[in-house]
Design brief:
Blueprint (H helix, E strand, L loop, with lengths): L4 E7 L2 E5 L6 H5 L4 E8 L3 H11 L3 H8 L6 E5 L2 E11 L6 E10 L3 E6 L6 H9 L9 H36 L5 H31 L12 H64 L11 H24 L4
Parallel strand pairs: 3-7
Antiparallel strand pairs: 1-2, 1-3, 4-5, 5-6, 6-7
Length: 326
């Protein structure tokens, strides 16, 4: 079995060895009171076929592990469970969200994780396990809890970061008289990231809830409070995501309203100035007729027309200014 893999084995609740060849997994599983972890990064079909034969995995589950962009789920097969989930993180200040797919085969004494790329932080997963060595005596449930807890914590951190980014966008939106192109771009990126985050967070509620079912016999009674704590985090992340969705929708509506109000202000001012210009134009047009009228070809007639022009323009300006039309 020539695979680029990371491995660990626990015996009697104690970490015994790590970094051993994947070919020795069957030897450890043949010994009593051992649990094994195997991690594969972007394996090919041939490599997973070897693992499938080693652990007795269902071909459909193996196919899901190879194919990308599967939805988050927990499938029950004979002899094992198949978990698919996504680790997430914000990549930059603009609010872009990166997702990293990870699958896991859960057997009675082994956990096999399959990563789609190198971006998933395996060292953080190992630290998660190392920080709670007293739980290792509960077998695969201990490994599974560390994995799901790490993924859900990442979801919660992403929701929290998006919340901060949306607050900043809200301040910028109402600080600018007119939303700038950068503000509109950030709004678009945040809406896109929130939609993507919602697609990976919401199904985790059903995943963790299914693991807590007693008929699966995956989570021992002693580990139930730990999984319930993860479930609580999933619910909070889900509710937070839904509330942010409403906030982003409100921001979008507010942005459209601000743009509409600004357009109304512009049209109001243009209309006011057009009215001011129209009255002097009418006066000069009247006095430009080629027919006799009071003051025709007289100096005082020019003075009167000029006075009417200035007076009406100033009167209209004062009226529009008082009514805040200019």
């Amino acid at each position: 079995m020539d695979l680029n893999a990371r491995t660990r084995v626990w015996r009697g609740g104690k970490l015994e060895k790590e970094g051993f060849p994947a070919a020795r997994i069957s030897d450890y599983l043949a010994e009593p009171d051992t649990i094994v972890w195997l991690d594969l990064c972007d394996p090919n079909a041939e490599g997973l076929q070897v693992i499938s034969e080693e652990f007795g995995l269902d071909p459909l589950a193996v196919e899901d592990a190879i194919s990308h962009h599967e939805r988050p789920k927990l499938d029950h097969y004979q002899g094992h469970l198949f978990l698919n989930a996504y680790a997430v993180r914000l990549t930059d200040e603009s609010g872009a969200l990166a997702t990293h797919e990870i699958s896991a085969f859960i057997t009675e004494r082994a956990l096999v994780t399959v990563r789609g790329d190198e971006e998933f932080d395996v060292d953080a997963l190992l630290k998660q396990w190392d920080d709670s060595p007293d739980l290792a005596k509960y077998g695969v449930a201990y490994l599974l809890h560390g994995l799901i807890d790490l993924i859900v914590d990442g979801h919660f951190d992403a929701v929290q970061s998006l919340d901060g980014a949306i607050d900043g966008l809200e301040e910028r939106l109402f600080a600018d008289e007119v939303p700038t192109r950068d503000t509109q771009y950030r709004s678009y990126r945040l809406r896109k990231s929130l939609t993507l985050l919602r697609r990976v967070v919401l199904p985790m509620r059903e995943v963790v809830n299914t693991l807590l079912r007693r008929d699966l016999e995956v989570v021992p009674e002693e580990m139930t409070p730990y999984f319930q704590d993860v479930y609580d985090h999933v619910l909070r992340a889900t509710e937070w995501t839904e509330s942010l969705r409403d906030v982003v929708t409100s921001l979008q509506e507010s942005r459209i309203a601000i743009q509409g109000n600004h357009l109304n202000q512009v049209m109001k001012k243009l209309t006011g100035w057009a009215a001011i210009i129209a009255v002097p134009t009418a006066v000069t047009g009247f006095y430009g007729q080629n027919v006799p009228y009071p003051g025709y070809q007289k100096h005082w007639g020019f003075v009167v027309s000029l006075g009417i022009l200035i007076a009406t323009a100033l009167a209209l300006y004062a009226i529009f200014k008082k009514r805040d039309w200019l």
